[in-house]
What we know:
It is a single chain. The chain is an alpha+beta fold. The protein folds into 3 domains: 9-69 and 100-150 and 339-473 and 617-669, Alkaline Phosphatase, subunit A, CATH 3.40.720.10; 151-172 and 225-338, no CATH class; 488-616, Gyrase A, domain 2. 21% of the residues lie in helices and 24% in strands. The protein contains 14 helices and 35 strands. The strands form 7 sheets. It has a 9-stranded mixed β-sheet, sandwiched between helices. Strands 7, 8, 9, 12, 18, 19, 20 and 21 form an 8-stranded mixed β-sheet that branches. Helix 9 (371-399) runs parallel beside helix 11 (433-452) and helix 10 (411-419) packs antiparallel against helix 11.
Amino acid sequence: MAREALAKKIFCIGVDGMDPRLTRKYVDEGKMPNVKKLIERGACRHDLAMVGAMPTVTPPMWTTLATGAYPGTHGITCFYRATSEPDVIAYNFDSRNCKAEPLWNVFAESGKKTLVWHWPGSSWPPTSDSENLWVVDGTSPGSVAMSAGQIELEFMLGANEKNTTATFKAAAATAGVQPCVVNDLDLDALNNENSLTMAESTTASELSCFVLDRKDGQGGSPDNAMDLQISYIRPAEGWADAPADAKEFVLLLGRGVIRRPGLILKNEDGIYDHIAIYKSKKESEPMYTIKKGEMKVQVIDEAIKGDKKYICNRNMKLLRLAEDGSSLKMWVSAAMDTTLDEVWHPKELFKTITKNIGYPTPTTMNGLQDPELIQDVMLANWYTSADWQADSLNYLIENEDVEVIFSHFHAIDLQMHMIVRYMSDKGENKLPPEEFQKFAEDIYKQTDYYVGKFIHLLDEGWTLTLMSDHAQVCPAHEFPLIGDIVGVNIRVMQELGLTALKHDENGKELKEIDWEHTYAVASRANHIYLNLKGRYDHGIIEPEDQYEWEEEIMTRLYNYKDKVTHKRIIALALRNKDAVLLGLNGPECGDIIYFNAEGYNYDHGESLGTCWGDADTSVSPIFIAAGAGVKEGFETDRVIREVDFAPTVAVLGGVRMPHQCEGAPVYQIFTKEY
C-alpha cells in the first residue's frame, strides 16, 4: 500500500541504554543542549519515555524497534538463545533467527537507499537482496567489527626505573562475564547458510556459566581486571638515533611476543613529556609518538592471535609520565583488524570509510571504581568512537546519497555497566555515590555531544528520531542470584529445592547439574525450564504433571524473600501461554517467565520494563522525534510503546508496515492527521 511520505529522509539515532529519566533531568539542568534542541523542535512525551517491551536487554529490544513485533513474535528473547539443553545458552546475534520482517527491508525494497549501521541482534547477515540496502555489522553490540575484528585485549603498561625486566601478566582470572559483549566470532561459520543455529560460530556461541555468587555472570563485570605489562626504564643504549638524555622502555604487544622499544623524551624546557615507539632500535624514525595526556588514535601496528599475525588499529593514552622520566603509565586499547571487511555490505563500504574517515575504533569496558580508568580512559576513548561513527555517518549522507539510516551507538550502556551499581551506596563503594553520579552525567554529556553531530540535518530536510532499547537502573538492594542474562541461575533455585548440583567424593560442590534431583532450571534473564520427560533425556517430571509443577514453582518464587529486607524479590511470574500478555511467549521462551521486583535488579535485563532505580535511574527506553512530518514543540500524553517505533517511522517514510508489526503509529505527533 503506497502512502504519502511525511519525510523524504529519516535518520534513526539509536543510543543503547539511554535513560529518559536521567536525560530529562540533565536537559532540565542545561547539561544536554543538543537533546534540548531536538525536544524543542520536535515531539515526545514530557518524561521522554516509551513503555519498553521485555526482556529489557539489547538483542530482543533492538529487534522489536526494527520490526514493531514483540520478542515472542520475532523470536529473539534474550541476550543469548536457548539450546536443546536447559543449562546451555547460545549466541543470539544472527538475523536468521529473527522471524519478523525488519523495517529497513521495507524501505530498501520501496526504492530508498537505506543504511543499517551496527544494529545488534537482527541486522546481520542482510536479509534482503535489494541493492538499496547497506548493512554495517550487527554481530555484537559493543562497537563496529568488535565481535570478529578484536585481535588482542586492552592492557595497562606500567614502567619504572625500579623494574629490571619487562613482563606481561594476564588479568587475574574472574568468573565475571562482560554483559553486552561478544568477541571471537568465527565469520566463516556466521556466513555459512547451513549454520542457522550458530552452534559453531564463536567461542562464546555456546556457554554454560553457572551463577553461584555475586562475582559470577554479569554481576562480576565491573570488577574484571585488565591485562598488565611491566617494563624497566633505563638510560637509552644501542640506538641508531637517540638524544643523550633519553631513557628507554619496552612496549610488549601480542601478549609479550612483539617487542617495541620506546624512548622517553624531553621537551624544550628539559621536562620529560612524551614518548616515541620504534619498530626496532635500528630505526631512526619512530612509528608513533605520544604526548603526556594525549589520546593517540589510529595507531597502526602488529598483533597476534593464535599463530597468525595481523595489522591492527589501536588507541593509546599516556596517562602519566614523571617529569624526570622515572616512571610512566600508559593504556593500550584492544587491537582491531584493519583488513576485516566481512561485516560490511557491500564490502566497498569498508574501503570508503577506512579511506576517508579511518578504521573502526576499539572500545573499552573497564571501571574497577577507578576515576582514572573511568574518566581518562573509558570516557575519553568513547569520545573517539563518537567522532569516528558520527563522521562516518555524515560522510555517507553527504557523499553517498543515503536516504534512510538506522543507527546504533553503545556508549551509554557499556560505560554505565561499570558505574550504575555504585550510584547509591550498598556497602561496596570505594568512592562516594555522588562521584559515580557525576560520572553518569559526563557519559550523558558525551551522548549529547554525539547527538549534536546530527542536529544540522534538521535544517536540511531530515527527520531525526532519538531512541533507545532500554536503560539501566541503580538497584536499591543487593541483586539476588536469579535473573542473570548470561548464566544458569543456581542459588535461589537451589534454595527453592528446584535445582541441584553434583558433588565430588569429598562432598565438594561441582559446576554440574544433578539432573536426577533437578526439577527446573532458571536460564538467561527471565526463563525457567522444567526438567520434563520426553523433552530432555534427563527429564524427571511427567508431562501430565507440568501444570501442577508450574503452579508449585511460581508459588515458591513469590514466597522467596530477600534475607535483608524480608521482602519478595519476584515481581511477576507466569506461564509461557499467559506471557503472551507481555509479548514474551512461544517456543523461544521458558515454561515460566519471571521478572525481578523493583530494587532487586542487576541493572537491566531481568526487570519489568517500567522499573525505576536509585539516583533518578530507570530501565525505560527513550523516544524523541523532530523534523519533517513531526509537530514542533509538541508534547503528547499518549503511552508510547516500544513496538510503536517501527510503524511510526513507516508512516513518516510513506512505506507499508513490516509484515509482523504489532505496534501502532504515534499518530498524535504527526503534522498530518490520520
